[in-house]
Amino acid sequence: MKIDAGWTGWTDLPLRLTGSVLEEVLDGGQAFRWQRQPGGVWHGAWEGSIARLRTAEDRGLQWSAPVSLAPEVGRTLPRYLALETDFPALAEALPRRTDPHIAGCIGAFPNLRILRQPIGETLLCFLFSAAKQIVQIKQMTARIAERHGAPLGRPPGSERRLPTWAEIARLTESDLRQCLLGFRARHVHGTARYLAARPGWLEETESLPYAEAKERLLALPGVGEKIADCVLLFGAGRLEAFPVDVWILRAMASRYRLQGWRPAQVAHFGRVHFGPLAGLAQQYLFAYERSVGRNSRPKDDPVRVL
DNA sequence: GCACAGGTAGATT
DNA sequence: AATCTACCTGTG
Asked: Cis ω on the peptide bond leading into residue A155 (within 30° of 0)?
């Protein structure tokens, strides 16, 4: 067994995830700061934490952290992984009896979870996501951390956290454009100014009921229906949020015969059909549809359902 | 070379 | 209220 200098040993977590489900959770579009390392180990960061995760044979999920950050990680990891939420039990409450498709998706990704990320970082990453693929969102995220984030660890290491909104508010739009953000730089800059003028606004928003929180998020430049729902689902634990992106639009069109429906109509259908856990259903549908694309769709045969 | 990407916002019909 | 379109930039 190789010794990892500076890292704690591996500690068990009360979760059983296969390698592919862990990949879906950490690298499937919920979060953008996890990198796969050799040996099936994932390396990631959120706020002031750096951690590694792995699935050990027959032992479930385990974590490790830089020794200096281990207390912080130990405090925040349970919330980040939403350990208090029993997702398999929640999946039982989805309409599996009456909806064979969602039943199949659930069967294909056992124990799929929804992370509970810090809302500020979630907002930033999803402002990056407009018309971008996961790989590119991760590049933007890494770039802004590298150039504008505070160093992490004690003593400070080479890794950096994402800049806080207060820190982003001190950057120019040009600084942001140099982080490969493109037109999203204007949105990030505008949102930073908006938040800087309203101390505590984001935290208040997080505590409001879903509908009110969403309405407030929609006031931010660059935040529309889809991004607002992603922030609430992945950064505020609101499982009723049902983000409709092009993947879900295609999936719902083909699997539920909703060809020609507009995003708002699909969102309404999703909330009615899946109920207060629509966001969890969305994550299953999304994971399943992406896996179908990866595993069986030839590169030059794009899905055309619309 | 050029369409397109896990969207949004503003203009135009 | 429904339908275009521009917006940046890397990838195929």
From this structure: yes
